[in-house]
Amino acid sequence: MSIDDDTQWLEWVTKQFESIAGEDKEIDLEEFKTALKVKESFFAERFFALFDSDGSGTISLDELLKALNLLIHGDETDKLRFLFQVYDVDGSGSIDPDELRTVLKSCLKESAISLPEEKLDDLTLALFESADKDNSGSITFEELREELERFPEVMENLTISAANWLKPPTAERKNHTPRYLTPAYWHNNRSKLLFMGGYLCLNTLLFTLAALRHTPLGGWVMVAKGCGQCLNFNCTFLGVLMLRRCLTWLRATWVAKVFPLDQNVIFHQLVGYVVGALSAVHTGAHVGNFVRLTQTRDRPALWEYLFTTRPGIGWVHGSASITGIALQLLICVMLVCSSTFVRKSGHFEVFYWTHLSYISIWALLVLHGPNFWKWFVVPGFLFVVEKTIGIAVSRIGGLYIVEINLLPSKVTHLVIKRPQFFHYKPGDYVYLNIPAIAKYEWHPFTISSAPEQQDTIWLHIRSRGQWTNRLYEYVRWLEPLSQEPRQLMRNLRKQRYHKWTQGHLFRSSGSEASVATSKDETIELTSYKAARYPDPEPADITVTRRDEEESLHAREVSAKLSENHRVCNIKCYIDGPYGTPTRRIFTSEHAVLVGAGIGITPFASILQSIMYRYRMRKPNDPRCGYSWGESLKDDEMKLRKVDFIWINRDQKSFEWFVSLLTKLEMDQADEEPEGRFLEMHMYMTAALSKNDMKAIGLQMALDLLAKKEKKDSITGLRTRTQPGRPDWSKVFHKMAEENKGKVQVFFCGSPALAKVVKAHCEHFNFRFFKENF
């Protein structure tokens, strides 16, 4: 910082201090905790003790400025010395295991990570053994410095993030070129922009031609007729944008390369607002014309023009005014109830039922305008055909939910018996109706099972609104039909069996077999006849201690699963499937899948299907030489690399999807020379980053233990969970350097995050697709 910057920073800190400190100009421990907003009081107490240089029990402005200067402007040694003092709780000049365990436990709470005590002991031991170079039983400052040097990324910006309230506000460098005017934006959105330009030109042309035809009737009539002609087109176009079956079919044709079919929902919303604006202007212009007419002698009164058929305006018994007022009210109600606030605040049913008024609107439009039926006849016919097909398909045959699994984060996993002729693509979605929950309500959900799964369809539903919460509560109190073996339990046991057999090498001599493991693991405990294995003769199998631990863990998981499983026979209906932008994934060369929270659901199906096709593309399994059959053609699978990024706020949100990700990691356990085909990136936003002093020890311990156990302590995956949010610039820069082909990013998550990801995609010239339905 320059002298001027230091002066401004001092003024800023002084103001912040005065706003917190009382009349005594001192900050006590409670005020300090409140200001830092730390979750765990351990760090607040340690920071306070180190800031309070005179031991008075309060911090003065001078003490605070001195400490902050060290943390913000000090060199690496100053910051490391402060970090060492935080860990050295008793001030002995060294860190013993108990002190390290206490600090790591506080780090876990600060980062909202919950681990068992045994895992905390493992983390403490891993970090302590790595840092205690001389095996003296304690860690000195020099040993801590040497250990931190192994993590260079930590030292780049080591500070206390909770002290940001006392940092000077940084002046953001403004980009003088608006994002919408940059060449990258126009290149990546050219089809959308061309479509919008054509849409605007068409509306302008329709308005102008209609207005010019009514020039003799005055300005009010010209505006009303111009808006009316635009309404004829837009009210019809609203229905065209919701022809889901037609759009799904068109996505497989050349039309998808010319028109932005993937943006149909966004355009539907935009056209809806246009209809609202046009209808308001149309109504206002007619009212203005009626006011002008009433000023003429022997003309009906204004209320008669608006609420009666006496003036004879309209092609059906003079009903134009009455139907126009009804239309205006219905359109206003529909627009209000379609707002994001209503849909996202747990009142989806309000949006759903008011949206059904489109039937009444179309009927009134036929009565209101003499030319609307000409615009509507063909799209209306297609709409009726689509609805008829949807009703027929959804009602043919009895569909039943045969199994339900309650997962963490209030996620309900439905297993539906798959109809014989139900064909879909990865990432497709369906509309689901469960009469037991709501007889007439249909809600869209992405199919989370792969198309290659023949017998059942999976849906993962997060409890957010009224309907999804009712479903979750209904399932919670649902009595199981029977205690017969459950399919998900069988699948779990089957996966564990395959995992066990793939991880061991059998040596057979006659009818005897033994397990070959490393020397420290081969502990013969007991033998039993493996009658269930496909050997000509039952074989003796040596059981290791690890096998017993896995068996115990499997029993614990089975007990937990049995509490959350329901075998049932619940009637349901599905309408679909309908396509999404994710159908483009298999024609990509380098696909990047970005999911946030429950937004991972579409990628559950896609990842399973990708790995299935990946195996089909390989002639034999490298581990056992098993042939998968015919190789997949290149035009069916162009993917050369897949990056999967999953962002969650807390640890619990990872739990319900981990089993599938574990299986995907096992599918490519033998890494290829050029790198893994599927690479996973996990981020936990609630966890503090490695640069924060309150988390540096924990993140180092997690890294060390992950390398030792070859799995992440938070998720159990081989992929290490990264704390904080992704640095999109670094992530995308690394992917661009891999040169695996043209990168396409597929996103499903919150709109706010979508804007951030899309902006970075435009910077790197990546194509961006957002899941919409």
UniProtKB/TrEMBL annotation:
Pfam families according to UniProt: EF-hand_6, EF-hand_7, FAD_binding_8, Ferric_reduct, NAD_binding_6
Superkingdom as given in the UniProt entry: Eukaryota
Alphabetical list of InterPro entries matching this protein: Cyt_b245_heavy_chain, EF-hand-dom_pair, EF_Hand_1_Ca_BS, EF_hand_dom, FAD-bd_8, FAD-bd_FR_type, Fe3_Rdtase_TM_dom, Fe_red_NAD-bd_6
Catalyzed reactions per annotation: NADPH + 2 O2 = 2 superoxide + NADP(+) + H(+)
GO biological process, one term: endothelial cell proliferation
Cellular compartment(s): Membrane
A GO CC term assigned to this protein in UniProt: NADPH oxidase complex
Classification via Gene3D superfamilies: EF-hand (1.10.238.10), Nucleotide-binding domain of ferredoxin-NADP reductase (FNR) module (3.40.50.80), Translation factors (2.40.30.10)
NADP found in the keyword field: yes
Topology relative to the membrane: Multi-pass membrane protein
Molecular function via GO: calcium ion binding; proton channel activity; superoxide-generating NADPH oxidase activity
Keywords for this protein: Calcium, FAD, Flavoprotein, Membrane, Metal-binding, NADP, Oxidoreductase, Transmembrane, Transmembrane helix
Protein name: NADPH oxidase 5
Source species of the chain: Chrysemys picta bellii (Western painted turtle)
